[in-house]
Amino acid sequence: MAFHSALALSIPFSFVPCRSNHQTLGVRTKPSLALFKLVNPLNAPRFGAKPTGFSSNPTLFLRRFRAGSSLGDAADDEPPPLVGEDSAVFELAKQKIASWVYFSVILGTVLYVLDVVWIDNSTGFGKAFIDAVSGLSDGHEVVMLILIMIFATVHSGLASLRDLGEQLIGERAFRVLFAGISLPLAVSTIVYFINHRYDGQQLWMLQNVPGVHQLVWLSSFISFFFLYPSTFNLLEVAAVDKPKMHLWETGIMRITRHPQMVGQVIWCLAHTVWIGNSVAVAASIGLIGHHLFGAWNGDRRLALRYGEDFEVVKSRTSIIPFAAILDGRQKLPKEYYKEFFRLPYLAITALTLGAYFAHPLMQVASFQLHS
């Protein structure tokens, strides 16, 4: 996913289709065993253990829920103990050189295979795929929506089958299967949009309005801080580390429980304002619809995986940005900003800026694909 995210951000007039250590933040002391039992009287399994589902005793669950909430009320300057995971944690001392060597080899291999099997017009199937879909309609808007629907169906469908797939073939094999099918479809959808983003019916023209370009650029930059946390561990993306379904709770998750959906909405609105034509509107409708479904489906899957722990996290987070903070359900640590001063966030900042300045080269490359 990092590949097509970086590509899309680099072009402020393109699009992107498309979520550690379990520890307490440094701004508070580690809770005692008695405190943990108060927050978790059911002794729910820690992360990595098999889910036990919801308690059959609603009284115990309510007591646990109120305990988690009351801890925050007892000390206004401290948030309650974490139930989910501390996100974007990267400790250099715990990194293994061999793991990153494997990551580099796997990344290079994946990109080479992707180019030969899908991207290269002379050897790959990408152009044939685009030609087949384009043959369904003369309207670029319709083709755009069909491409997004194909990607969304495959991407969300495989995500929904993750538990079953991991049981059958294992976490790493399922991740390879998931990426091997989703990535080519994502690349083709992105390339089609880039190549045809100005071919639709022009509905408005605001590109010469002062401040619009700066607004679109700033919105794109901000959107990728929301889009990125689909994962915080690149080694899991490449299946070097065993992939996990995480229940993140810190960093940007305090602002919204579904940052990828929020980031996609920000990105789509900004670029639709900039391009102002029917193709951009069609792409935005398709992408926002897909991510709204993804938010619902993500909550459903996390509830099945983590049971009552997810219900606690859900109770003190929100889908709408800042809503849980404003109504007091989310209590921020004193030094909340430090949750963003971590390598994954710094890396996405550097990649975002670098990709933006390299976007002319990427636009030229896109015109040579599937056309």
Automatic annotation (TrEMBL):
Gene3D superfamilies: 1.20.120.1630. It is found in: Membrane. InterPro entries: NnrU_dom (IPR009915). Keywords: Isomerase, Membrane, Transmembrane, Transmembrane helix. It is a multi-pass membrane protein. One of its GO terms (cellular component) is membrane. The chain crosses the membrane at residues 100-119, 142-161, 173-194, 214-235, 340-359. GO terms for molecular function: 9,15,9'-tri-cis-zeta-carotene isomerase activity. It holds the Pfam family NnrU. One of its GO terms (biological process) is carotene biosynthetic process. Residues 143-362 form the NnrU domain. Coiled coil: none annotated. This is 15-cis-zeta-carotene isomerase, chloroplastic. The lineage of its organism: Eukaryota, Viridiplantae, Streptophyta, Embryophyta, Tracheophyta. The gene is LOC107422221.
